[in-house]
Amino acid sequence: MKEKDIISNIQSRLGIESLNDMQLRMAGVQPKGVVTLLAPTGSGKTIAFAIPLLKNLKPASGFVQAVVMAPSRELVLQIADVIRPIATGLKTVAFYGGHSMQEEVNSLSVTPDIIVATPGRLLDHIKRGQLDLGTVSTLVLDEYDKALELGFSDEMKRVCRRLTGIKFIILTSATPLIELPSYLPAWTPTIIDFSGEDSPRRRLQIVHVESPSRDKLDTLTELLRSLPDGKIIVFANHRESVERIYAALKKAGLPVGLYHGGLEQNERENAVELLTNGTTPILVSTDLGSRGLDIAELSAVIHYHLPPTPEAWTHRNGRTARQDASGEIYVITAEGEDIPDYVEWDREYYPKGESQNPVTSHVATLYLNVGKKEKISRGDIVGFLIAKGGLDAKEIGRISLRDHSALVAIPRTKAKAVIQALTPHKIKNTRAKITLLA
After folding, report:
1. Do strands 33-38 and 190-193 pair parallel, antiparallel, or not at all (unpaired)?
2. pLDDT of residue 318
């Protein structure tokens, strides 16, 4: 692809008016050899590596040209959602555990140009004989440091041994790499270091909240009721704790969602979507949510439990103050709790349990059991809601369109009436079941 076309697509399809310094620097990279990009979370690195990746690709020619490996399902989906709209004329697919293997196999009926995948799922396709990666010329290992931390070294090695035609490699990492993996070509890397540039820490206000009791639930509830309206992630260290916190906040009447690795993949995707579209603007999560979630305008992060490692501290905090935005971090501690050296704050705060503009949900999410595979588009859904549901176009919020379903944000006050109005009708001659997700 030509650079001018890539930049134009970034502006028109992703709504990003201008590139930041890191993205401009990566746009100037010659697509050959090894490039190591050191960048903090939330800095826009997906767009940064997507530009030289796409510049190195030829028009669609019936073979796989590029592979991007990332350590989590969420990150794979995020990367694919960035690359797909700007890679016009090229086919991008996403492979990850928890997704239908048959649907992934079906997506190979027309050979993709770009594969974004977790290492394990990509290796699974290779072992089944469903992929020939000998034609791949460009490889990206995103969040390579996290991939090693999660134990994906062997899978990445076995995949990379199949990439016999590689000419250009990009590794991204939040921390400096001691050495390149032995299974990659022994090329001298070009290091592009933006790890200290415009650090998100400069745009963060870290606030200490002291809990009068070891059980911090009351303090957390008071804090959430004291904050201004916005989107918030509350981090805890264990699934059981996340479940308990979620149940308590829901009982207290707060608009809250739940996110951890014990949920089914569709439940996790729904939780992220409900946070993004404002249906449940508070999300209680384990550290699974500290990587790969790119939520626009996340106003605050709350550490209910102190993070167990410096990396967890960094990546939890990195969910807010993304790109050029600012954000607030709240650290709740109890008497006698050991404070790690890497946990610091700028000021104290004493919540009073009330806010002039409290965190509220004015949005409900409709679930439709039809999607892209049923030939339904976002335009079809908008037209259906206007013609049969009685909504104005401006009342229809974010639409998440998936293979066999769609999630649509609409005003909460109209949700029940809209469902009742839509139920007797077909969308594009297709009968759809429409329910209230939340």
Report:
1. parallel
2. 80
Concatenating the DSSP letter of every residue in 11-72 gives HHHS---S--HHHHHHHT--SSEEEEEE--TTS-HHHHHHHHHHHTPPSP-SS--EEEE-SS
Please state whether beta strands 66-69 and 363-368 pair in parallel, antiparallel, or not at all (unpaired): unpaired
| Identity at 59, one-letter amino acid code | P
Q: Could you tell me the two tokens for 266? A: 């569709």
**Token pair for residue 170?**
């990009």
pLDDT of residue 40: 76
DSSP 3-state assignment of 331? strand
**Gap between the terminal Cα atoms of the chain:** 41
Other C-beta atoms closer than 10 Å to the C-beta of 219 total 21
* Contact yes or no for 367/405 (Cβ under 8 A): yes
User: H or E stretch including 106?
Assistant: helix 101-107
**E strand map for 312-391:** 327-334, 347-348, 363-368
Residue whose C-alpha is closest to residue 115's, from 88, 85, 80, 149:
80
- pLDDT tens figures, 29-86: 988 999 999 987 767 899 999 999 999 999 998 999 999 999 988 899 989 999 999 9
Is the CB of residue 93 less than 8 Å from the CB of residue 116?
A: yes
Q: Which residues of the chain have a pLDDT value below 50? A: 198-199, 201, 323
Distance CA 128, CA 139 (A): 21
- Kindly list the strands in the beta sheet with 347-348, ordered across the sheet, starting from the edge strand earlier in the chain: 256-259, 282-285, 231-235, 298-303, 327-334, 204-211, 347-348
Give the residue carrying structure tokens 């030829």: 58
Q: Identify the three-state secondary structure at position 241.
A: helix
Q: Which helix (H) or strand (E) holds 434?
A: strand 434-436
Give me the pLDDT at residue 330, please: 96
Residue 347 has phi, psi (to 5 degrees) of: -160, 170
The residue written with tokens 């796409």 in the block is: 54
For position 151, what pLDDT does the model report?
86
What is the value of pTM for the model shown? 0.71
DSSP state at residue 194: -
Between CA 29 and CA 97 the distance in angstroms is 32
Rounded CA gap, 409 and 382, in Å? 11
Opening angle at CA 115, ends 261 and 51, nearest 5? 105
According to the model, what pLDDT value does residue 315 have? Answer: 81
Strand order in the sheet with 168-173: 92-95, 114-117, 66-69, 138-141, 168-173, 33-38, 190-193
Tell me the C-alpha distance between 13 and 85, whole Å. 6
